[in-house]
Amino acid sequence: MTDAPIRTATADRVLHLTLDRPEKKNALTRAMYARLAEALDEAADDPQVRAVVISGAGGSFTAGNDLFDFMTDPPRDESSPVFQFLHAAVRFPKPLIAAVEGVAIGIGTTLLLHCDLAFAAPDARFKMPFTDLGLVPEAGSSLLLPRLAGNARAAELLLLGETFGGETAREIGLINAVAADPLAAAMERAEALAQKPPAAVRQAKALLRAPLQERVLETIREEASLFIQRLQSEEAQEAFTAFMEKRAPDFSRFE
Question: Over the stretch 204-220, which tens digit does the pLDDT of each residue have?
Fold first, then answer.
């Protein structure tokens, strides 16, 4: 079992995964991605788990990738933990539900595209700042977000990378509802699903996901290839250096 700040608890056939690094707003490290992938793979094969809920500790969902960890050992291919986690989420055969509080940055937002249900607090803030970091979209978002929100809104969210709130997330179909207590809402739905005929639920989910699943995985691979290339670009190096130096990046010299 991978050692990482991911809390796990199972009750009433619902597995609750908590991102437990509140001092960093649950920014994700390689070890956390590996543990999440491991937990989903284990839950997929465990008949005592019928649904999974993912949430964050300390009032945040996740601030996205931990840039210090990311720069120390960036992903190099599909064997990297981040891609293993994405593949596990895409292929997960049981209901996957998210409860979002506070910030949901980068993969904190794109992960929701692979959840079957998602609930967010009124103060939740979503952001996909890939271009700001000299990067490209990930997690299949370049395919799934336009289908969900339409091309114009997807371009606005992915190219500008601006922050948006729960009502916008609900409006475009990224979440099911804004809830005062999103974890309670997520757990209530998970427990309801866990009481239903498990094979019927799995097969219904498979039917919902089947038309796009292989295309999503191929898009993730294509995005990953470009993402890995972009990590070595001068634009990304300027963005990351500026972040570390706590200054605004200067992209004026780039063409």
Answer: 999 999 999 999 999 99
CATH assignment of 6-181, given 3.40.50.1820, 3.40.50.300, 3.90.226.10, 3.40.1350.10? 3.90.226.10
φ/ψ region of 26 (left if φ > 0, alpha if ψ in -120 to 50, else beta) reads left
Chain segment 47-64, per-residue pLDDT in tens: 999 999 999 999 999 999
pLDDT of amino acid 2: 57
* pLDDT surpasses 70 at 1: no
Question: Which residues contact residue 151 at a Cβ distance below 8 angstroms, ignoring those fewer than 6 apart?
Answer: none
